[in-house]
């Protein structure tokens, strides 16, 4: 039950793109279609941004997209806006109804 | 509107016990798998436990196995987390979470637990 690996920080200029990686193993990210991404602003509750690798819940802008290759999932935020600043967490089903989260990535909009 | 409201958090000494509760509204509670997720101060999210819709299956993160017990009362739309043998490292905000195909669809506002002497 090791946490998924995310870079501690990422940044991009207003209007540009940023991509965050989430690396696991074949037992979790690599072997699961149940990879999700959450956004959390300081002092707030996490919000679901992507589920099942690349699906967006209703109300989430299409600037947010997800993908996966091998044991690494990625979240890309295109056309960065100021309100996209915050912490982002990936999660994955890891078999036996175990859920793993990544350590989180702080996104800064320059 | 779906709402999850936690209660029961507080300050407890190491080795002590605490019972967290979560009341759900606006969703058919008895068909949802439910989880507890915690976040230590300044740290990331950590899944703690999940219970199946009918309460028959329960799953835990390794550090809390044997110390924490998740349960539910579908008649009361309520989820519980009985925590015993609490350690300093259990200090966190504990979120009640509605799980749908391994994604958290709804989060509660959280209840803080502080383990300190």
Write up what this structure looks like.
The complex is a heterodimer of chains A (110) and B (117). Chain A has 110 residues and is mostly beta strands. Chain A has no helices and nine strands. In chain A, strands 1, 3, 4, 7, 8 and 9 form a six-stranded mixed beta sheet that branches. Chain A has strands at 9-12, 18-23, 35-40, 47-50, 64-69, 72-77, 86-93, 99-101, 105-109. The termini of chain B are far apart. Chain B is 0% helix and 55% strand. Chain B is built from no helices and eleven strands. In chain B, a hairpin with a 6-residue loop joins strand 5 (45-51) and strand 6. By secondary structure, chain B is mostly beta strands. Classes of the chains: A mainly beta (110), B mainly beta (117). The interface between A and B is medium-sized, with 27 and 22 residues.
Q: What kind of assembly state do the chains in view correspond to?
A: heterodimer
* Mean residue pLDDT of chain A: 96
The count of β-strands of chain B is 11
Low-confidence stretches of chain B: none
**In one word, what is the shape of chain A?**
globular
Query: Largest interface, with Cβ-Cβ < 8 Å?
Result: A-B, 27 and 22 residues
Number of helices of chain B: 0
Radius of gyration of chain B: 13 Å
- In whole angstroms, the N-to-C terminal distance of chain B is 40 Å
* Structural class determined from secondary elements of chain A: mainly beta
On the 0-100 scale, what is the average pLDDT of chain B? 97
The run of helices and strands of chain A is: EEEEEEEEE
The radius of gyration over CA of chain A amounts to 13 Å
Strand content of chain A: 35-45%
Range of helix content of chain A? under 10%
